[in-house]
Amino acid sequence: MSDYAVEVVDLTKRFGDFVAVDGVTFHIKRGEIFGFLGPNGAGKTTTIRMLLGLLRPTSGYATVLGYDIVKQAEDVRKNIGYMSQRFSLYHDLTVGENLDFYGRTYGVRGQRLRERKRFAIQMAGLEGRERELTRNLSGGWKQRLALGAAILHEPKMLFLDEPTAGVDPISRRAFWDLLYELAEGGTTIFVTTHYMDEAEHCQDLAFIHGGRIIAEGAPEDIKLDRMRGQVLEIDCTQPDVAIGVLREMGLFEEVALYGAQIHAVAERIAEYKPRIAQALAGSGIEVHTMDVIAPSLEDVFISSVRNHVNG
Fold it and tell me: Are the CB atoms for 250 and 198 separated by under 8 Å?
């Protein structure tokens, strides 16, 4: 048996003249949480649909749990669970009825279905709410119910496509706690997201942009290998005005807003601090703090995209 749950080699998907996925290659170890990161339209969902056997690749090769995604697509689908960002729940059914429906769809019946339903409801924290209509649940509870439905048949691998989109931060953290528990139990998890903070929870990552993999590896390794320049975090008044001032200086690889702070990127950026302070003060902007920090994954993603575009 291979150490890899997923092996992808030069996988490509074209729609007419448009190349949605352009020769991607990556591997996912068994029992790990693998993050597939990129903006909307980058090729994340198209890649998942090919791996699930729902979309035929134009070229390339891939296996999921040892099954060829083209020749053995049905075997792939029997052994994986899938959860989309829309959760795919029936809102006019109760919590219990949704689980019954998905259990039977996966071929789980009788005593095993009853046991798996109990597990799913307990895992999701929905005890006592089995008869509640799904439409009455909040986004976070629907999310947990959808995860419970996706694992009723005890799949060896889970594919989660933007599973936390539109869910509040507290529910997102609780959801990731559930994913950790599943991974510790041996389930391999492939998750797509555009939330860079969530990527920190993954053991391995791949950044996709314009249908191509532009960085791959463990989060800390990517930060070390792919970041060009240092990051200076600036906390100041009028950050929207300050960004314009800093960009006009023409000294930085990147200047972007991160929450209420500004991140400016350049080699040996600490040397520029006096000039930055002078330029901002000259525009009536007060600097509270200005510190060189470790890059975030979002910093690294932006740097990787810039390096990729510039060749």
Answer: no
Superfamily covering domain 4-218: P-loop containing nucleotide triphosphate hydrolases (3.40.50.300)
Fold of the CATH domain 228-294 = Alpha-Beta Plaits (3.30.70)
Q: Hey, CA dihedral for 194, 233, 272, 231, is it positive or negative? A: negative
Residue type, 199: A
Q: Is residue 264 within 8 Å of residue 302, measured between CB atoms?
A: no
pLDDT at residue 310 tops 70: no
Rg (CA), the chain: 22
pLDDT digits (tens, 9 = 90+) for 146-193: 999 999 999 999 999 888 877 788 888 888 888 999 999 999 999 988
pLDDT in tens, 112-126: 999 999 999 998 889
Q: Please tell me the distance from the alpha carbon of residue 88 to that of residue 90, in angstroms, as a whole number.
A: 7
Cβ burial of 125 (10 Å; 0-12, 13-18, 19+) is middle
Q: Which of 190, 224, 228 is CA-nearest to residue 208?
A: 190
Question: What φ, ψ does residue 255 adopt, rounded to 5°?
Answer: -135, 120
For residue 109, give Cα distances in angstroms to 91, 133, 152, 217: 22, 22, 10, 40
Task: Please choose, from the candidates 7, 6, 13, the residue with its C-alpha nearest in 3D space to the C-alpha of residue 59.
Answer: 13
Q: Which helix (H) or strand (E) holds 74?
A: helix 73-79
Tell me the angle at which helices 169-184 and 139-150 cross, rounded to the nearest 10 degrees: 20
Residue 303 · residue 265 · CB < 8 Å: yes
